[in-house]
């Protein structure tokens, strides 16, 4: 079995379309979390704004609101008019809207530019997810789903590390990082071609027979809800971590940058092994292990009192999230029939960012009422409940589902 897996992994890496799609995947982390180390500085810079406290915190998840609104429509457009032009237009708009915060005069206009950035992300992510299903099947598709999480995490590691350095110089400077997307555009333009969608992808069994077509929508809806909840939990890290460190007496942007970098590094490394882990313990086992790791990470953040323990907690959260995230993509692409693949990709994309946008809206009041320790206890309990539910499912039906 191992001997057949390695060539498939190699084939994916050698396919220039896969490289272009991984570049597109790396932009999604940049969209939100890149400016996280700059949040306290931006709050000070625009301190005269009476709404600065909330607006600054909403700058990180603001693109998520636009994605949540536009991604389902982007999916419908992708099914009707194609994926290539959507992807390229999204990358161009990403560069323009992302860099706009470098010179816009106040928080409301920066917030508006972040909403436009979300529209660009909706186009990019919907097209990218759908193209994974169009171009690849079987183990190649599963491997690429894991690799895209690695691309997001390793890209986030680089971008957030740079943002930490830039934010220490000027809180506006991290916005220039969004210009990196322009470097990716030539390869995407060259290798991304519109796939034929008039007949099923060879080897994609569900498009050929699909005896349970009537039930796929319900299972898909459950996946969407679970992914939204997962991202709501995970996004506490980029939206609240810098303020948690400041409250604990560590106000340097480099502290936040280091913690988020560790989170991305652990997640990216583990996501490289996703295909092997999933084949070994099945989807239910992956969910149990991933949510358990996230619960452990938030427990460490709640109970520990040293930066080293906090970094270990961040690594555990990142590893757990990297385990569960690829499963949503692979399961959704297996469930959705070919004519609805773009729509499924759009709705799945929207669920990620609905969870992200709701995260600070729910976590900030919890911090005000119970403090950061209380927030992390609540989140760890929720993640632990998800892990227990997966274990009970495994006991009832077996790990290999």
Set down the secondary structure blueprint.
Elements: H1 2-14, H2 16-33, H3 39-45, H4 52-59, H5 62-81, H6 84-99, H7 107-135, H8 138-169, H9 181-191, H10 205-208, H11 216-234, H12 236-247, H13 253-271, H14 274-303, H15 307-335, H16 341-397
Quick synopsis:
With 401 residues, the protein is mainly α. It has 16 helices and no strands.
Comma- or semicolon-separated keywords:
mainly alpha, 0% strand, globular
What would you give as the CATH superfamily? Answer: MFS general substrate transporter like domains
| N- to C-terminal distance | 19 Å
What general form does the structure show?
Answer: globular
What is the CA-based Rg, rounded? 20 Å
Largest sheet, in brief, is: none
Number of alpha- plus pi-helical segments: 16
Q: Can you give the helix content as a percent range?
A: over 70%
Strand content: under 5%
CATH level 1 class label: Mainly Alpha
pLDDT < 50 stretches: 1-10, 199-212
Please, could you describe this protein's structure?
It is a multi-pass membrane protein. This is MFS transporter. Keywords: Cell membrane, Membrane, Signal, Transmembrane, Transmembrane helix. It is found in: Cell membrane. Helix 2 crosses helix 8, helix 2 runs antiparallel to helix 9 and helix 14 packs across helix 16. The N terminus is likely disordered. By secondary structure, this protein is an all-alpha fold. It has a single domain, classed as MFS general substrate transporter like domains (Growth Hormone, Chain: A, Up-down Bundle). It is globular. It contains 16 helices and no strands. The chain starts with a helix and ends with a helix.
